């Protein structure tokens, strides 16, 4: 019997402080630049102030990229432009600084953490701090079998929670969340289609490297078949992740929910993180208030998930590479919003207007000359 009760998150997760947000809005109205002139930067600054429960908002000084990694058995069907089981090579490139996320992270001074949940490789080939949370070698082929056992799903979910606690305890003040996977967008498409009640064709995208039409049809068929297996378990979100998610997606869902418990803001990167966030919303409806959508990757499943959560992407650059790249592109906007909200001076107070009652009092004073005043003077004794 599992001791993990996802219903507890409904009570544990609170919304960002609404009173602080109103204070941030009031402060913004007093600043020298008129409200609205900075566009969405105003909203970003106020969102961050509420998340921090601080006015003025504090600068984002200790962000971190957290990437959950895994291979998916569904990639064996040729649904990805990358070979099945090749995600470990991508992880090595990230660690060696050769992937886009690593280049941007160096430029922005942001540390990158990779968490192996189900890479299809010898764990000894990667650093210990990367592989210590792994629950299995590769996730199952979700069109014909479960991605995980129930025990593996719970272990992956708890691993994600533990990573969130580690980041919160270490002083991280904002997380850019991403994935390093092969076949992950297929699993994400199944989750989104199941939770939104749509057909496979509505959520099937081209993936990170733009698969051709034949691969797209194989991917659509794989999502369709996996969707049949997902629908009977829609009422149990952990079982849904075990059936058609995978260890990396399950861990990301646990991370997102525990980050919301710990009041740690998270920037969502692409379609995989959006799918996990959608599962998280089904678990705890207040949780999306702690998340920010970085960009629109062009994946239809991502658009569907973000629309369901009422999250509007900050950027639309068509970045499909994943791995937290789009999230890092949005980070400077969040930092700029914090700086503007905190450092723009307020308008000088206007000089006080004369009290209207002063004028009235003067008008009522008797005149010192004129017939009326003289007529009211008491007569002098003779």
Automatic annotation (TrEMBL):
The keyword Glycosyltransferase applies. Pathway: Nucleoside biosynthesis; alpha-ribazole biosynthesis; alpha-ribazole from 5,6-dimethylbenzimidazole: step 1/2. It is an enzyme of class 2 (transferase). The keyword Glycosyltransferase applies. The active site is at 323 (proton acceptor). Its EC number is 2.4.2.21. CDD domains: DMB-PRT_CobT. Keywords: Cobalamin biosynthesis, Glycosyltransferase, Transferase. Gene3D superfamilies: 1.10.1610.10, 3.40.50.10210. It comes from the Bacteria. GO terms for biological process: cobalamin biosynthetic process. Residues 344-382 are annotated as: Disordered. NCBIfam families: cobT_DBIPRT, PRK00105.1. Belongs to the CobT family. This is Nicotinate-nucleotide--dimethylbenzimidazole phosphoribosyltransferase. It comes from Streptomyces calvus. The lineage of its organism: Bacteria, Bacillati, Actinomycetota, Actinomycetes, Kitasatosporales. The gene is cobT.
